[in-house]
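Design a sequence for this backbone.
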């Protein structure tokens, strides 16, 4: 049985815009490996103090089978993918449960 999940994330404490784009490329590869690349949008933005950060979210709820197993797997891969490119960066994932919200 699968569950509908909203995925949103940010990566802060990025050194500069070129590093932010390196993180985007690495995360796009992760999304491709997890077979959700076509369902997740990732980009670079600048916050109020001029610091670059990476953000992304699912375009619509993701149907994930055995989410309770996949979630820790994905969160670990996400954190290590960011750390490989930018060890000082801070990744944060937020999960939404749209079926429970309506």
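Sequence:
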């Amino acid at each position: 049985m699968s569950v509908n999940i909203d995925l949103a994330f940010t990566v802060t404490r990025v050194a500069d815009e070129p590093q932010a784009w390196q993180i985007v490329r690495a995360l796009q590869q992760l999304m491709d490996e997890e077979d959700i690349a076509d369902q997740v949008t990732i980009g670079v933005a600048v916050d109020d103090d001029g610091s670059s950060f990476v953000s992304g979210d699912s375009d619509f709820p993701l149907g994930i089978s055995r989410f309770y197993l996949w979630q820790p797997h994905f969160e670990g891969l996400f954190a290590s993918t960011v750390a490989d490119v930018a060890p000082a960066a801070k990744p944060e994932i937020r999960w939404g449960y749209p079926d429970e919200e309506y």
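Helices lie at 17-33, 67-85, 98-101.
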